[in-house]
Amino acid sequence: MEIQHQFDGRKGSFFIEEGARRFAEMVYVMAGSKKMIIEHTEVDESLKGQGIGAKLLEALVDYVRKEEIKVLPLCPFAKATFKKRKDLQDVLT
């Protein structure tokens, strides 16, 4: 399963999709050009327990590092994962 990214200039998401169905998604909104707010993460029941949410977050972190964007996680899942994973914390505001 491939993680895809879409961004409309203000909001976007990292997601896994097959056909017309989204199985997992991490949604964010930009607050200016260099600050991203993670709003929500959702993973389909069929994929739970496989680390898919963490993979979405890792893809997001790779993206913001390249773009030099800082992250504010409001999503409870993202917030908890950042707290556990010191290797990702360099992108936090």
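The record above closes out task 2.4. Task 2.5 opens with a second protein, given below.
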Amino acid sequence: MLSNFVVLANVVIAIWLVTLTLFFWKTLSRYNKMADGGADKGFKSMADSLIKDVASSKKDIDQLKTYSEKLHKEGQLHIQKVGLLRFNPFKDTGGDQSFILSLSDANDTGVIISGLYSRSGTRWYTKRIVNGKGVEHELSEEEKKVLKETRLKYE
């Protein structure tokens, strides 16, 4: 009876040793992967290196956020809304040969270019707009219409 107990105890101990060996081998292989071949480094120096890398990454992310915000602000100032209207300003000429071209940024600031065609020639006019309103000159009904349509188109 005692010999059966000793055999059973030895089998249990052997299974326990195999289990511990596998667990230790798995842990050691994970450690070696984490160390990335740096057997001469200690765990503390590797952890410190990882912490420095994380801090450096956070700094880089903050710089990228700042740069992205700067680009977004600058992007608001570029031409984003383009509107075109062809029309006939005079009843005695045929066709819609005159036009109004609206070029504005996100804040409806930009320029309106008008080309008025008549029998004697074409006249070109430009008007500066700030926040959707004419600065030096009042906007015509057609120009207001182009701005309104352009706003609706790009909302």
